[in-house]
Amino acid sequence: MLYFSRWKITAILGTILLGLLVVVPNFLSADQLRNNWPNWLPGRQIVLGLDLQGGVYLLYEVDTADYKARRLKGLESDIRNAMRQEPRIGYTGLGVQGDGVQLRIRDTARVAEAAERLQGLVNPISNNLLGGTALTEFAVDDEGDGLFRMNFTTQGLEQRIGTVINQSIEVIRRRVDELGTTEPSIQRQGAERILVEAPGEKDPARLKDIVGRTAQLTFHLVDVNANPQDALAGNAPPGTMVLESMDDPPIPYVVEEAPLLSGEDLVDAQASFDSRTNEPIVSFRLSTGGSRRFAQVTTDNVNRPFAIVLDREVISAPVIREPITGGSGQISGSFTVESANDLAVLLRAGALPARLTVVEERTVGPGLGADSIAAGQIASLIGAIAVALFMMAAYGLLGVFANIALLVNIVLIFAVLTLLQATLTLPGIAGIVLTMGMAVDSNVLIYERIREEQRLGRSAVTAIDTGFQRAFGTIMDANITTLIAAAVLFQLGSGPVRGFAVTLTVGIVTTVFTAITFTRLLIALWVRRRRPTTVPI
Amino acid sequence: MRLLRLFPDDTHYPFMRWRKLSFPLSGLLSVVCFLGFFLIGMNTGIDFQGGTLMEIETKDGPADLGAIRERLGELNLGEVQVQEFGEPQNVLIRIVRQEGGDDAQQAVVGKVQAAFGDEVEYRRVEVVGPRVSGELAQNGTFGVLLSLLCIMVYVWFRFEWQYALGAIVATLHDIVLTVGLFAFLQLEFNLSSIAAILTIIGYSLNDTVVVYDRIRELRRKYKRMHLITLLDLAINQTLARTTMTAATTLIALSSLYLFGGEVIRSFTFAMLFGVLVGTYSSIFIAAPVLIFLDPQLTPNPADEEETTAEPKAA
Asked: A370: nearest CA in chain B?
């Protein structure tokens, strides 16, 4: 056990040197790294977790109920249009029922014709190229007696939700990018969730406001003949709805349900100032199709007000003074410079396809992050020194060897963390400190074994040799059990806890490596030089 | 130079005889902890219960907790806990989960921020909705059980089933006592507490496995030695290592506890406790339990006479 071939020594020392090289960039500033550090050397730095550098962790969930309700409402109006096509098919009781839409065809003789029209609305999602049935969003159920139901298919709904998530991620990415957040991470989590992490974000409230807003912009004509108070009481004329303004107290408006234009018709939006009043406004440009429609509507409705609605709240309701044919316009409300800017960002990035709800939020301010780093550094330093002193007191020279091994171990832990680009969190630092305590365990196992062997009358070399040999199996068994616990922790944990599992795992691996290679090498070299007759422990 | 020893060399403590004390003691403590868990209950943090946690720092000197409590009370948010956190100007606010869904929890942060405005710095804001907290609790429990199972299988594979069972008994003992500690001291039980428990599991097993390893080795060496003598011998031989490792780990953890900051203080406190209990259990529970689990190894009493003496080195 004490013989090391030359290449083995080279390999062990080479690994350690490599580790050092990987760790060094962590002590350089970004500037030094760019200018003074050779390109061909590893130049990565450890990623600090949100709890150390400050930042925002937001877990969103797509409101599937809201999505389904909106989608079914849309289906209901599609069905209405389909039945009203010439020759019209008479029906009653059209409405959303549970997870579907149902209606009854009056004339039982035309059921087949109605079924055909409904079949046209099932919305195929993907064609099965290998034959078999194509996947559709809805299925038509003929319940007899002229009663039809259109329900979501399980797979169809799943696929739609998946698409909604992917679209939402795209929209969120555009919005966050526009805000200039550095290195945001936007990921899908599970079937219905999106995780947004923004390290170093200074203004979490604003980020949350921007990301979570549905930002569905629509223009509606205002029904000036209806009384808003009556409508609020539930007597809105058919085809209209009541929306309230953002003012305090809110002003109700009765508007037509069908929008004139929506956010999709916009090609650009910018925050600017009104040339007369100097108030912040948002100016927008419409697509070709949108501007044609807008020109038509404004020509037909001069002197009528229309409402500009964002997420079912009326921003403003200007009166159409003259036809707007240029394809551009502006939205004025009681904006501040920032809120006008935010609205422009939202309009440019597009609307979310469904409402998102924050189900988990964790924000750490930069002050706390810096304090945590400082506390972590002090605790590690004091912990390391205390453990080192204790080891020296207990094992003398061999304790010094163990301490050198501990130092190497810490370098290797940071090297592996840097290479893996694992996130270092505060509990992660705790994991490293804990590993320091446990890392010396391997050495303790070996040393105690050497002492025992020596007490049994063995020579120094044999005692060391058997000590290492016997302790090896124990070291493996003992560390694998801890490794199992750490692996489970990694699987289940998120954020900081996962950071703890990572450092613990890495720590165990490097500990075993240093104990059975580096410490052994140190002792072997010492034995070769000094030829001791007894081991001084 | 005289080297530091926690125990003299060549100890012959009759650990197995002490099981008559340690078993009832541990049994009693476990029952008490169980009762504490069910009667007092855990002080579950927002991770498992849902709700809002905010750490704020006042900008002008020490915080007036009474005034903060009063202003929060005006917001009608239900039960609100306000406590100093590490420094006199740092305040930790916990607000109970609100009725209604996830949006209701979100509204809380807005209300508090509107009430305090720019007077304070918001160092930390955590909001966990009712569904996520349920999932986190479920995953945490699942994680502890899963790791116990994996470790049991590993020990079974490497040793024999009696050892696997013994290791689990000792580990469960540590978990029950740690959970009891949380219940009696009403320490906040959150995600990092689960991490602490899993680490304790890892540490305690590490310790137990080292002792078992020695028992196995001695059993191969002294085939006819009485089990009780053998277990005593194994524990005495590994005593130096067990205590040295516990000492270095406790030293490192103490440094974390004292200097690592308020955020991880309860986390390190639980681990300090766990290392102590884990060390105790591998000596006083894990090894003696084998006496009950390994009857085929107990030879007839006649053998006991000749083998109780310290065996000479083979």
From this structure: B123
pLDDT tops 80 at residue A451: yes
- How far apart (Å, rounded) are the C-alpha atoms in residues B128 and B252? 32
CA distance B130 to B48: 8
Asked if residue A46 has pLDDT above 90, the reply is: no
Mean pLDDT score of chain B, rounded to an integer? 86
Q: What is the pLDDT confidence band of residue B276, given thresholds at 50, 70 and 90? A: very high
CA distance A431 to chain B (A): 9
Q: Which tokens hold the place of A523?
A: 């002792």
Q: Do A433 and B259 touch (CB under 8 A)?
A: no
Percent of chain A's residues with pLDDT above 90: 13
**Pairwise CB contact (< 8 Å): A478 & B210:** yes
Question: How does residue B205 score in pLDDT terms, banded at 50, 70 and 90?
Answer: confident
Mean pLDDT of A174-182: 81
| pLDDT tens digits, one per residue of A232-250 | 887 778 778 889 888 878 8
Whole-angstrom distance, CA of residue A369 vs CA of residue A360: 20
Please report where in the chains the tokens 């410490």 appear, as a residue. Answer: A519
From A409, A504, A532, A391, select the one nearest A448 (Cα to Cα): A391
From CA A166, how far away is CA A67, in angstroms rounded?
14
For the stretch A335-359, pLDDT in tens is: 888 888 888 888 888 888 888 888 9
Spell out the domains of chain B, with CATH numbers in brackets. Answer: 15-44+133-304 (1.20.1640.10), 51-128 (3.30.70.3400)
Closest CA–CA distance from residue A402 to any residue of chain B (Å) = 12
**A175 CB contacts (<8 Å, ≥6 apart)?**
A210, A211, A345, A346, A349
Residues of A in contact with B246 (CB under 8 A): none
CB contacts of A483 in chain B (<8 Å) are 202
Asked whether the beta carbons of residue A441 and residue B121 sit closer than 8 angstroms, the reply is no
The per-residue pLDDT for A128 is 55
CB pairs under 8 A between A and B: 236
DSSP A424: E
Domains of chain A: 6-52+367-530 (1.20.1640.10), 65-152 (3.30.1360), 213-353 (3.30.1360.200)
Indicate whether A73 pLDDT > 70. yes
Distances (CA, A) of A395 to A235, A485, B7, B185, B305: 89, 30, 14, 38, 37
Count of CA atoms in the C-beta half-sphere (13 A) of A253:
25
The model's pLDDT over B113-164, given as tens digits with 9 standing for 90+, comes to 888 888 888 889 999 988 888 888 888 888 888 888 888 888 888 888 888 8
Residue with tokens 């200097």: B259
| Calpha distance A251→A245 (Å, rounded) | 5
Q: Name the closest residue on chain A to residue B138, using Cα atoms.
A: A492
CB–CB contact B252 A426 (8 Å): no
Nearest-5° Cα angle at A152, A150 to A158? 170
ipTM, two decimals: 0.85
Q: Do B10 and A455 touch (CB under 8 A)?
A: yes
Are B144 and B78 spatial neighbours (Cβ–Cβ below 8 Å)? no
Residue B164 amino acid letter: A
In the predicted model, what is the mean pLDDT of residues A97-118? 87
Check residue A259 and report its DSSP letter: -
Residue B121, phi then psi, degrees to nearest 5: -100, 135
Closest CB from A384, A438, A484 relative to B154:
A484
CA distances from A348 to A166, A212, A287 (A): 18, 15, 13
Q: What are the angstrom distances between the C-alpha of A391 and each of A57, A99, B172?
A: 41, 68, 31
Three-state DSSP class for residue A131: coil
B177 CA to chain A: closest CA distance, Å?
A: 18
